[in-house]
Amino acid sequence: MKQQPDIDVVIRYLEDPGHEEHKRSLDEWLQLDAANLDIFLETKALWQGEVLPAPASYNTSLQWQQLDTRLTASNLTPVTNPQPVQASKGKLRSIASRYWWAAAAIVGIITAITLYRQPLYIAQQTAQNTDSLLLPDGTKLYLNAHTSVKYPRHFKGNSREVFVQQGEVFVDVKHMPEKPFSVHLKNVDIEVLGTSFDVKETKKGVNVFVQTGKVKAVYKNGKKSVVLTPGEEAEMLLAGATISTRYHRNNNPIAWKTGQLTFYDTPLSEVTAILEDYYKVRISLKGEGLADKRLIATFHKESLSEVLDILSKTLQVNAVQKDSLVEIY
């Protein structure tokens, strides 16, 4: 009995015709049976030609019925010489068998190619904008600007995994205790069950801030980890396994998502660091004692110029902005 053709051999070659190993594998497969060449040519035409039909729209049953009708009609064709009929039947059976198999393979190839072209993972990337998306399990991802994530088209098994390749993501996890949720970064893994948290990859390392629930952040080398509860933020440096944590009375770490900045008697040195991150500018304090001045204020989606104006009046300082540089004196 002939074996079912290895569709992957054909597809791998069509994906990368210049690959020597793929060429060799295809050649060996073509030598196995003459019908393989027909299958290959049909597949190549489909691959390079028109858009393939989706599996759901391709009527496989109808294709088999039409092929059966043609083959049956061929078998019922009248002949006058009985002896050649036996030989013709034998030959016809051989041809019919070969092309039944070839037709079945081509129908399978159409479905296989369509599925093959659908990647197992979906990649999402932002530029200057923020974005949000809903994962297959109901988990929501909010992407800051210049962020790239990857996640499975379907969550299978008893786990859910998302990969943050760069940038900052706020994750609102759908509570599913039987399927733990994980976020993977280059050097850090984050494990949760049902919670909302922010994860940000920086040049120095990874920052994790928890809004609700509980999160465990682990270095991939397994040497150190930290468990965070609401309001806690951890900074995990790339060099070594250093973890520092702090508690926030507000949600400033996710201001990029909420649009709100809140300061409770906050030193100006800390205020400027938060404003730098939120507005993507550099702020320089010029003068003794400025860093210790304290601010009580709440801002909601105000422009930087509006914030600097309020800050100047509240703290009795001068703030001058030139392009992406701000000087406070």
From TrEMBL:
Species in which this protein is naturally found: Chitinophaga tropicalis
Alphabetized UniProt keyword annotations: Membrane, Transmembrane, Transmembrane helix
Protein's name in the database: DUF4974 domain-containing protein
Protein FecR C-terminal domain ranges (all copies): 261-322
Residue ranges of every copy of the FecR protein domain listed in the record: 131-216
Pfam families cross-referenced by the UniProt entry: FecR (PF04773), FecR_C (PF16344)
Domain of life according to the entry: Bacteria
GO terms for MF: sigma factor antagonist activity
Membrane spanning residue stretches: 99-116
InterPro entries per record: FecR, FecR_C, Ferrdict_sens_TM
